[in-house]
């Protein structure tokens, strides 16, 4: 298939402007490798790893199977050994860092010195402007409908709003599981998209079988957004949190019974290899672009 040329693909060195979301307890080396080998950017969340040695093992496994660019979601806060995690990621050639907690400025110099880029999760223009002041390279527009922590503004509004007001590269996150949805985000000014919910129901995802089946069975109305689980607004499969009473401790196995997902469960109908999901998104993206191009008449 043709390479899709965007500001993001040139910046990171990938074929397609698709990031496999770094999903807590779901995205590990298997999913990262599958997305990377399909031409996208595979990413892992560093909170998945209880120790730096666990992270080292995972990065080593990734590098045994792919030399393609990969990314991480790093939490720059006192809860994690982020300095050791950062050093290890740089040693293993990680080029793309997403910050969601803490001051991104803390990692900028080291990441830039290694030729990498830092993007910040934001849910508003105000957050985007503050992130720009810290010197970051771009923004992840986490819109309503996204799986996990999310904002309240739709992708169709948040992406062009950030692009016009903050004037940094913007990656769209929220409700993007197909090539057609990807086209819409790119038309709004995004340089790349993040897909997460669609990748939960893949062979390489570490979600358990019941979780994958629940994602396939769910519709958009089965997703609820609440702050009672983590303290911040986050989307969940409603049935998985019906009996929730107390927030599990960090690292507790109980988190595996709380199933996060976005409203794009509407587009998830079967469990497939992650690489096929990426390839299908790209193929549909190209077909939709051709169709739209053909609908324009200059006569």
Question: Helix count?
Answer: 11
**Cα-to-Cα separation, first versus last residue:** 31 Å
Count the beta strands: 11
Low-confidence parts lasting 5 or more residues at pLDDT below 50?
none
- Strand pairing plus helix content: what structural class? alpha/beta
CATH H-level name of the domain at 7-202... which superfamily?
A: Aldolase class I
Strand content: 15-25%
In CATH, what is the class of the domain at 7-202? Alpha Beta
Task: Give a description of the structure.
The chain has 299 residues and is an alpha/beta fold. The chain has a domain at 7-202: TIM Barrel (Alpha-Beta Barrel), CATH 3.20.20.70. It contains eleven helices and eleven strands. The mean pLDDT is 94.
